Amino acid sequence: MTIRWGIAGTGRIASDFVRDIANIDDAAVVAVGSRTREGAEAFAGARGIPRAHGSIEDLAADPGVDVVYVAGIHPVHRDHAVMMMRAGKHVLVEKPLAMDAAEVDTLTAASRETGRFLMEA
């Protein structure tokens, strides 16, 4: 079974993730979400990712994604991760996991409530 990954964000660390996950036989990056469709399409096209979403919300709604790598700027990690878990996706968040202890509490509560896996990269 192939684990289908989505990426929330299109920065350098997201590019590194795509390169590295290509070395795993049972994993594939199938979608990317960005603040703009143009940004998502450029990132996806350059890396052979089949689906590009013009918003993080659209990525969360993609039924073909099992796990999301949250790679956006630090202040959005909590909101993006909670959104993904509430949409039924497991989440790997680039460090830092959150901006403070209260945000970590929010994230762990969302993980418990949704039964979704949450991990910091």
Question: Layout of SSEs?
Answer:
Layout lengths: L2 E6 L3 H10 L5 E7 L3 H11 L3 E3 L2 H6 L5 E4 L6 H10 L3 E4 L7 H14 L3 E3 L1
Parallel strand pairs: 1-2, 1-4, 2-3, 4-5, 5-6
Helix pairs in contact: 4-5
Summarize the structure.
Helices cover 42% and strands 22% of the residues. It is built from 5 helices and 6 strands, in the order βαβαβαβαβαβ.
Account of the 3D structure:
It is a single chain. By secondary structure, the protein is of the alpha/beta class. The chain has a single domain (3-120), classed as 3-Layer(aba) Sandwich (Rossmann fold). 42% of the residues lie in helices and 22% in strands. Helix 2 (37-47) links the parallel strand 2 (27-33) and strand 3 (51-53). The relative contact order is 0.17.
CATH class: Alpha Beta
Give the overall silhouette. Answer: globular
The ordered string of helix (H) and strand (E) elements is EHEHEHEHEHE
Number of domains: 1
Terminal residue distance:
23 Å
- CATH T-level fold name: Rossmann fold
Number of strands: 6
User: Spatial order of the strands in the main sheet?
Assistant: 3-2-1-4-5-6
Level-2 CATH architecture:
3-Layer(aba) Sandwich
The Cα radius of gyration reads 13 Å
Unreliable spans: none
CATH superfamily label = NAD(P)-binding Rossmann-like Domain
Largest β-sheet summary: 6 strands, parallel
The level of helicity is: 40-55%
Average pLDDT taken over every residue: 98
Please work out how many helical segments DSSP would assign. 5
Strand content: 15-25%
The secondary-structure class comes to: alpha/beta
